[in-house]
Amino acid sequence: MQASGSDRAVEDRPVEDRPASGRAVGVREVAALAGVSRQTVSRVLNAHPQIKESTRRRVMDAIAELEYTPNFAARALGTKRSRTIGVLASDSRHYGPSTSIAALEAAARAAGHWVSTAYVDSEDLGSVSAGISHLRGQAVDGIVVVAPHVRVLEALDGLRLDVPVVTLLAGGRDGRSPAVDQIEGARIATRHLVELGHTRIAHLAGPSDWLEASSREHGFALELAAHGLEAVAVVRGDWSARSGYAAAAELSAARPTAVVAANDQMALGLMRHLREHGGAVPETLSVVGFDDIPDAEFFWPPLTTVRQDFDELARRAVAALLEGGADGASGRPMLVPELIVRASTAPR
C-alpha cells in the first residue's frame, strides 16, 4: 500500500545528523541514520500499514547497524501491546520443532512482531508453568506452544491463561489450532506402497509420548485397514538415525517388503543397516520417510518422503494468534502434506 502525501512528506523529511560517539542509541539515532523522522521509525516498529517498503528497509537496516533494541516493555505500558509473541517449546533438537521455531520467528517478523522463546523440560510439569509465567512477565501479546509431547499439553490444560494461545505439532489434538494433517500424511505414504503392490508393510514408529508419532502410526494403520491389510510389524524408535539402525534387525525378522518410517532420520539408519547386511533399497525393501528434511534428496538412494509446509503452518499460527488465539483458526482446514516420490520405493 502506498503512503499518503502527508506520510510521504514525513518519511522523506531530513532529521538531525548522527550524534557524537558515546551517546545512548535510541529512536533519534535510528531516524538520523535512516534519513527519516522519529515518527516514521515508530511507525515501522509498530508495523504501520502505510509505510513504503523502501522506507521500512532503511529503518530496519539502521536498527541492525546501530544494534538498537526497542524498549517494548515501556511501549507496552502505553499501548497495552508489546508486539512480542511468546513461544513455549519443549524440544528444539529434532527437525520438526527446530524448523517450526525458525519459521515462527520469520512469520512473526513479517507481521511486525518479535519473538521471545522459553524452552521447558517436558518431563518437568513445573517448568511448563514457569515458562508460561516467564513469557507473561514479558507482556507477550500471545503464546505459540510448540508442544510435541503429551505431557506439555496436559500441563497447559491445568493452567489459566489470560493471553491468546495456539499449539503446533500437537498431532491435531487441538482442532482449533493450525495443524498439518499427520494422519493423512501417513495414509498417503502407506497408500503409495500399497499402490506399488506391497502387502507386507511395516512401520518404524516414533516415540509413544509424541503426539505426531501417535497420529502417524494411527494413519498408517487406518490406510492398511482400508485395503484389508495389517502391519507385519511396528517397531518404535526415538527419531534418531541410530534408533532406526537399531530397529532394523527386528523389522527384518518380520520380512516386510516395505517400511513407512515416521521420520527421515530413522529411515536413514534403517537404510544403512540394510545395506551393511547385504540388502538394497528399493530392491530388497522400499522405504518411505516423513518430513522431507533438506538432506533427504541426497540419501542413497534419494528418499521418498512426506513433505510438511512448516512456513505456511507458522504463518497460520501467527495470524491465528493475532486474531485471538485458537479461535482465530477455527474453521480453517488442516494443511495436507505432500508425497515426494524419489528412488527409495519401487513396485513389488
At a glance:
With about 350 residues, the chain is α/β, with parallel strands linked by helices.
How would you describe this structure to a colleague?
The chain has helices at 5-12, 27-34, 38-45, 53-66, 72-79, 95-110, 125-137, 150-157, 182-195, 211-226, 241-253, 264-276, 310-322; strands spanning 84-89, 114-119, 142-146, 165-168, 201-205, 233-236, 258-261, 286-288, 305-307, 338-340. The protein is an alpha/beta fold and 348 residues long. It is built from 13 helices and ten strands. The longest helix is centred in the first third of the chain and has 16 residues, at 95-110. It is 44% helix and 12% strand. The protein folds into three domains: 5-70, lambda repressor-like DNA-binding domains (434 Repressor (Amino-terminal Domain), Orthogonal Bundle), CATH 1.10.260; 77-179 and 310-329, Response regulator (Rossmann fold); 182-307, Rossmann fold, CATH 3.40.50.2300. Strands 2-1-3-4 form a four-stranded parallel sheet, sandwiched between helices. A four-stranded parallel sheet has the order 6-5-7-8, sandwiched between helices. A two-stranded antiparallel ribbon has the order 9-10. It comes from Agromyces terreus. Keywords: DNA-binding, Transcription, Transcription regulation. This is DNA-binding LacI/PurR family transcriptional regulator. Residues 25-79 form the HTH lacI-type domain.
